[in-house]
Protein: Replication restart protein PriA
Organism: Ohessyouella blattaphilus
Amino acid sequence: MFADIIIDVTSGKLDRIFQYRIPEALQEKVKIGSRVQIPFGKGNHEISGYVVDITDKTDYEPTKIKDIAGILEKDIALEGKMVALAAWMKEHYGGTFVAALKTVMPIKKRENNKEEKSASLAVSREEAVAKLEHLLLYKNQKARVRALAALLDHERLSFKTLKDAYQVTPSVLKALADQGLVKIETKRVFRLPQMSGEEGSDEALTSEQQKALDIFLEDYRRGEQKSYLIHGITGSGKTRLYLEMIEEVVKEGSQAIMLIPEIALTYQTVRRFYSRFGERLAIINSRLSLGERFDQMERVKNGEVDVMIGPRSALFTPFEKLGLIVIDEEHESSYKSEQMPRYHAREVARQIAETEGAALVLGSATPSLEAYHACETGKYTLLKLPNRATKGLLPEVRIVDMKAELKEGNRSILSEDLQEQIRERLARKEQTMLFINRRGYAGFVSCRECGFVYKCPHCDVSLAAHKNNRLVCHYCGYETQNQSLCPECGSKYIGGFKAGTQQIEELLKKEYPEARVLRMDRDTTREKGAFEKILKSFGEGEADILIGTQMIVKGHDYPNVTLVGILAADMSLYGNDYRSSERTFQLLTQAAGRAGRGEKKGEVIIQTYTPEHFSIQLAANHDYEEFYQREYAFREMMGYPPAEHLLAILLSSPEEELLERGAKYLKDFTKLLNKENLYGIIGPATPYVAKIKDVYRRVIYIKSEEYQALIHAKDKIEAYTSINRGYNKIYIQFDFDPAQG
Ligand code: ADP
Ligand code: ZN
Ligand code: ZN
């Protein structure tokens, strides 16, 4: 048996993997993640490394392979666990081992450690006063006098304060310390992100919450760490339930990881966690500096943390005794990494939970098809919260057909109904949220008169508009010409949909000059803290209307919002990929969930050109179950995930011709691999973004019922392209069950 060993994990300098033989005596003991001692280099001096893979074959001359000298720790240490996880990720998602390792252990070196020096008196107050009086006799001792006087007034002062407020330099303090008058202390300062708590309700759990908690705890205490999906409508008290579950797990001496989509989007959640766990909570997010991230992980390693909250990378928190992983809003696309290794947090969490013996809890008002399907097959236990925790009612949802509006001569972005409702809210001093759905928008072409949309005859996804009036399918490459008149009804109102948050803001200002309007989009949230500021100001009633993109959909509780308007509800339907219906259902349900969170009943208006679409109809009826059934039937018929598995092989290169050829050969190779007909092969096609920064892109899809067949194909393709010179200038990425088309 042979072991692949990586040498210096933390320096990140040695990217190479070396092979050693596992001697007979160690064969039982050496595992993936084990830390071993090996002879290295010419002098054969012994160094340590981690085992990343174990195989029974080698590419080298067997007699030249050295033996592992010994095993360092019997149990796999924390770092070894991370190495083992990286090995799993490489195996499941492809790419290099180093890329996987960097994902699971992103922080390498201690980055300019911040230390704070402070001074205090080393003698009694009397002695200090006497010394001060003595020093007053000398003209050139003024700085020392200032220092002693300051320290008599304040027990302890930082070097910084002494310098800024008292003009006392460190050298003066050093001199006083040498005289034995002053004590200097150095403390490592952990860079903690600013946090403040927010009291959540501590009212008794609802009977539904209690029932779910009991099921979870009964399994947990019995030592059965299972996976659960909490399907709870918006405002059903899921967050409250996570808090209780985590608190119990912590009480039993274990730690928990809480994933939330993107910290900024749900800062209310973070505050609730902070008020519950205080200093025992650590937080990471994409805005933290490397140093701040490092500090959070240090606190974890020092055992100072019970709960880590953060986006998908928080999964890689090295807890000693992990008891629970929670993934809030598990359907969110930000849980999928769009860089190699392109992992999904849900899958990696399951792997970690299994190896660590931890429980996994997913929660959503609109579960992903994957998660709900996993409940149907018994992989997850389904826990339901079908009612709002506050006894509030779900809002009433109305669908407005924008085609009819056009027929009646209203060419505004806002329907008559919505305009009137906004006016009413302004009069009643209630708030409105206007949500423009732009996610997944990729230039589909539709008819505003009859609702016709160009679709691929082979793949049942909408075609995307490219240059020169070409309309292209991103799966199979099918192409057609865009006509200037609608092929269905002959109308000239056919084209791409154009409306942004800015245009809506201008329109509102014209229509309702008295209204105070806030806008939240990429432009207005560029500055640090801008996001929170807008939400806070809206929450405090400083504006009547908040306009935003999908950013405003998430996790905010505004009791005074009684109207939600959703513009261009269809936009995400034409995202040109197989998940568009699902994404639309999710966005509409989540957006609608913002209305009527308080005591007043909410109303929701959905504006669309395709009012009959099942995603829109079922979101308006709050009917997830029916949506799931219909959507799953579609996936099954077309062979899309989760009914089958899909592997996207993304090829990119600055040389288009080379890329074209490489993609074609790769497809031929994949066909050869497929002797047993285990999968279907589609493409090569040109993705919507056909070129990024002068790098061209192509994609080939492989579809199979067996995930393992796809992993096998991936391995073979990696081997083929790594030895074949033609692929030197082509970058290849693998994307399993891609989130975006
Ligand atoms: P979700 O995460 O499902 O959207 P939250 O946990 O945020 O739900 O709860 C929604 C609202 O209901 C919050 O204002 C919360 O304080 C309140 N809430 C949650 N649980 C209860 C409860 N048991 N009793 C009363 N109010 C509750
Ligand atoms: Zn038409
Ligand atoms: Zn197609």
User: Anything to note?
Assistant: Residues 200-201, 203, 205-206, 209, 232, 234-240, 389-390, 557 surround adenosine-5'-diphosphate (ligand 1) (CB under 6 Å).
